[in-house]
Specification:
268 residues, alpha/beta, Rossmann fold, 11-stranded mixed sheet
């Protein structure tokens, strides 16, 4: 098999279980092993690398995911574009469970995570002003809408440390700041992709209203059971959207500037 890939997907085994000729490989990186084996398959003439970010058995909680190893492994495979579906909470009443949000900004509220490939002696400061690939986001938005999915075309995701959910006061604060989505894994995943010059798009599947919304007593605080229920109900929509995006990706598209990053200090 060809141990190279064009497109990476962070998701579970369900995303590739119906593809033929899937090969699972192990990759070593300077940052340890990725979350699990990486599955390689071909779809629409494109080589796809699938990696469950939490591991197949969900053995890595959000704050323990080996983010650097995961991203570095994708880069070693030659991946140029990454699609990153996530189960996420809503912070605004107009963004409902079952909706999708294609995020364009993040706010980092995590702590202690290994969040850069530049720990010295080489030091670089890579801009995070626009962390998500605009070209890949456009494709995702159009694909979702053409499939009849309710897609919000932008949103700021506030990334919390986990594994705990927010308090009511924290959720109220995030809501008052005008942020739309809450999640536990987007940082440092998206920024590490930026450091490696990989295009990256997040598709947030909204599963809940976080800790509830101020003034809405009819909305209960989020529970793990509720998140899983909504996610399972919408997993087919996620799959359809992912594979529609993959169909539309032009591998030789030179219009994107995400890869304009100097990688000379990395052990690639």
């Amino acid at each position: 098999m060809n141990n190279k890939a064009d497109i990476g997907v962070f998701g579970g085994s369900g995303f590739y279980s119906f593809l033929k000729d899937v090969e699972e490989i192990e990759i070593e990186t300077p940052y340890g092993k990725p979350s699990d084996k990486i599955a390689l398959a071909t779809y629409e003439g494109k080589r796809i690398a699938f990696l469950p970010r939490h591991g197949k058995n969900h053995q890595f909680p959000p704050h323990m995911i080996p983010y650097r190893a995961n991203l570095f492994a994708m880069k070693k495979l030659g991946v140029k574009k990454i699609l990153a579906p996530t189960a996420s909470g809503s912070l605004q009443p107009n963004i409902k469970p079952g909706d999708f949000v294609v995020c364009d900004q993040f706010v980092d509220r995590t702590s202690g995570r290994k969040d850069t490939f530049y720990d010295g002696p080489v030091t670089k400061h890579i801009s995070a002003a626009h962390p998500y690939c605009p070209e890949l986001r456009k494709i995702a938005i159009e694909a979702g809408r053409d499939l009849g999915i309710t897609v919000h075309e932008k949103g700021t995701v506030v990334v919390i440390q986990g594994p705990r959910f927010s308090t009511v006061s924290e959720s109220r604060w995030f809501n008052k700041m005008g942020w739309e989505v809450i999640n536990m894994t987007q940082y440092p995943e998206v920024y590490l992709a930026r450091e490696l010059g990989i295009c990256y798009a997040n598709i947030s599947l909204i599963t809940d209203y976080d800790a509830g919304l101020e003034g809405r007593d009819d909305i209960a605080p989020v529970t793990e059971e509720a998140v899983l229920k909504v996610f399972e109900e919408n997993i087919e929509k996620v799959k359809k959207m992912l594979f529609e995006i993959i169909k539309r990706i032009e591998l030789r598209d030179e219009s994107c500037t995400c890869n304009n990053v100097d990688l000379s200090g990395l052990d690639l």
